[in-house]
Amino acid sequence: MGGGNSSPSPPQPLLSAPWRNLPQDKKEDLEFVKAFQPGNKNVKQLRILLHGPVGAGKSSFINSVNSVLQNRIIGRAPTDAISGSSYTKKYKTYKIRNGQGSHYPFVFSDIMGFEKDTDRGVHVDDVILALKGHVEEGYQFDPTQRLKEGDEGYRSSPTLNDRVHVLVCVIPADKVSLVDDKVVKKMREVRLAASELDIPQLAIITRADLACPEVKKNVNNAYTSNYLKEQVDKFYMLLGIPQNCIFLVKNYDPDPNINADMNALIMNALRQMITFGDDFLSDP
Description:
The protein is of the alpha/beta class. Helices cover 32% and strands 11% of the residues. It is built from 8 helices and 6 strands, in the order αβαββαβαβαααβα. It has helices at 28-35, 58-70, 124-131, 181-196, 208-211, 213-217, 226-239, 260-282, and strands at 46-51, 92-94, 106-110, 166-172, 201-206, 246-248. It is globular.
């Protein structure tokens, strides 16, 4: 009868060509970041807010950026791999030293992670207040009670420096399909609020090496990984963030040594965050 086996062949772990090209010079994005100055002279520092589910790697990404720029492993933002709940409890701003006795003109704001239960994790309204600059440094998040005007920790008259200039969603590559629907709903609400405020948005997918064995072997395979491309597409369907605004990274956790290939992924994502934020600040 002939015909053979008509079942589809399994997807290849690596594509024949990368679906995104990084600069050939691995230090190009790093040099851009080091030389960056905000176009808006009324702003001292560009503020990047990270949000996402508990354990996504928000604090680890901050440490990784710091590690790249300091050329040594840094662990200032506390992380915890075993608690199962958000290790970040307070609204915390992280500055990064530039080696010249001052700091780079961008900062990261770290917040409590989202959880599916209503009495756990950061409240959506608190994140939206942070976008607008109403959350004061050091405010202790209370999952059971949202921050409101008149409360300790509420900033009544935020300046442009207090506001968020770019919003970054963080999610682990090995759990894109496992994010609870209630958590996705919370992230969508924050995304909608940011859109109404014209705040630019992008996303980073962490733990690329844990999700794909080929990337674990060689981090340069990140953007040729068929599996990771599928995760990016799934994440786009979840939140609507365009694929060209979703970046893959491998954080320096638990890696103890600086690696130029890991640096390239981290700096490529950071460069886009800075560019988006600076465009936002430069708009009339």
